[in-house]
Amino acid sequence: MLSLSKKTMVVFVFVFVALAAVFFPISFNFVLLVCFLFWVVGVFFIPSSLFVSRFYWFIFGIFFILPVVFLGGSEYLLQGAFLTDIYLTDSQAILLIRLVLFHLVFFMLATFLVSDSVVVKNIDYEIRNIVLFYFLLIVTAVIVLGFNLLEMNAVYTQGYAAFQSDELSVKKNFFILLVEFLFLSLVSLGMSKKKYFCFFLLMIYSFSLIFTGIRMPGACLAFFAFLHFFTYWRSKFILVMIATLIMAPPVLMFTQSLRVYGYSALDYFDLAYGYFDLIRVLGYTVDTLKAVVSIGDVVDVSPFFKLFQILTIFLDRVFSVEVDFGYKAFAPEFTKYYDLDLFERTGTTFGSASVAEAWYYWGWGGVALVGSAAFFISCWFSKIAYSGGLVLTLIYLVALPKFIISVRNEVLGWFFESAIHLLLCVPFVIFCYVAFVKKEKIS
After folding, report:
1. Beta-carbon contacts of residue 19 (< 8 Å; ≥ 6 apart)
2. Is the pTM of this model over 0.85?
3. Which residue, of 11, 205, 313, 411, has the greatest Cβ tally within 10 A?
4. Residue 227: helix, strand or coil by DSSP?
């Protein structure tokens, strides 16, 4: 077992080699090999106490390195998985891998600036009015899960394109949204006190999101809720990831089939093919970066789209006021640029990606900034998981899944969405403290 100093020296060597590969690329295969090895070493270097950082690093490689390795290397990058008519030159293919490596390098450099020690805070309180607590928990769970089932049925019968374009017949109104935030506040209170029933309801809620079509947020919520509740498994990262990689692909690919084929998905689903098909679907995210590298600054998109999208939906659902702020989403607009018919027919888009947006909006500096910020944010989430209390547990459950999926989603969208959702939760958090929290002491 390497000591910390020796592990640090090994990683420093890889950092210097990686930087050399970024600025003095010898060949595509050399840069890809350095990128792959650097990623593998990083999985073992990042301490288990920073389990969120470790997971971010791991899933980033799953999305941006493994598809290139398994789908044909430079030949894959020269053609593509999602849209096969995105062609890269040799220099553009090397640039793409250099961007991925540059992001990882600054993520890893940030690890040397932060202590991996965590402080476990024991917040001593009891849940009072327990009958009322469970009554409200069950009522809100029934309402929220019932709506998710209705929305799930609408997606399967009307198509995922209708869901993407906000034309589904079943739409979440403001009342359902508030009930959902009350449910999450109650669940967070129960999770902070390790109540098994709250964990059980949260897992059901997570899977209802997955089968509605919100796959990555639901899957990440289930994964991190498990690690929050069962702290022992945070230190068993490799075992947890092996189990996840075995169990997750069939579920995720089956929900993909449900989104496309509806209730007839069983007729098209192939379990064995699902594992390979998942790699191909992961390649769609790499195609986002390919599109950015290949076409340059020609698509009119904004990093603030998510903020104005939420505001637009709020004004429409609450006040019946239709407003168009003119801001456009990254993934749909790039898909329309390459294949307008595909988007309008199926609602299928590139998987947007924070590293792709960082490069598109801010260049090399943006990639470095986002890579460093990703570590500091993931480190903070890792550390608050060791602290009890309603507020930090709620932040962990609401914001962390959104942050993790920024790997293949908007670079700033997760922050805007999390901030707005948490602000809307404030009245319910206050209610929970007043009605259910008894005698809180921090030690």
Report:
1. 105
2. yes
3. 411
4. helix
